[in-house]
Amino acid sequence: MTEKTDVTWRALAPEDFDRVADLMGRTWLPEFDEAGQRAASRVELAHYLASATWSLVAERAGEVLGAVLLAEREGEPVDGADWAALEARERAAAERDPQAAEAVRVEMDGVEEEARLEQEYAATGAPGTAATVKLLIVAPEAKGLGLGGRLFSAAAEHLRKKGAKGYHLLTDDACDVGFYEHKGLRQAMRRRSQASWPGADPATDEFYVYVYDQEL
């Protein structure tokens, strides 16, 4: 069994991209085939990294067990232009494979819908608009080790030290929102999705997206 004492904690490096994208694909996108998982996860991760100002990775023996990304309203993205360029290249590469292109379209339609909800939330001026948790993921094989809680707490502590008044995140019915409620976040906004998510059709399924926030 993996022990927490064996884990290294550090900022995400460019060479981590493939491993984190692979983790996202196999953890969050099981409905897609291998090509779809790879294409959609790489586009989505590059998209998040393009606005990320702070990161933390949990690694053991060369394996990424978890990661968290923050985008701070007053912060400067780390290599944001490079990640945005990578997103564009990955989108273009996916277009050469119809199945990969469709996977990217479906996944990013959901991401874009969340972004529109986030814009509504930003207009409220709530303390939580100071920062966004763009990504929080833990490998299935590392569940139960407390890595998700430690990653999340480290992100919140970073924001406290920077003087942020709060933070928020976007999530949906495919996630365990109970984790965030246990951490003290509140449901700030809720919208029925109009996007076609993997495994959910807006014409027949009630699938919701949410903003959760917390003051610091």
TrEMBL record:
SUPFAM superfamilies in the cross-refs: Acyl-CoA N-acyltransferases (Nat) (SSF55729)
Domain (N-acetyltransferase): residue spans on this chain: 7-215
GO molecular function: acyltransferase activity, transferring groups other than amino-acyl groups
Superkingdom as given in the UniProt entry: Bacteria
Record InterPro entries: Acyl_CoA_acyltransferase, GNAT_dom
Protein name, UniProt field: GNAT family N-acetyltransferase
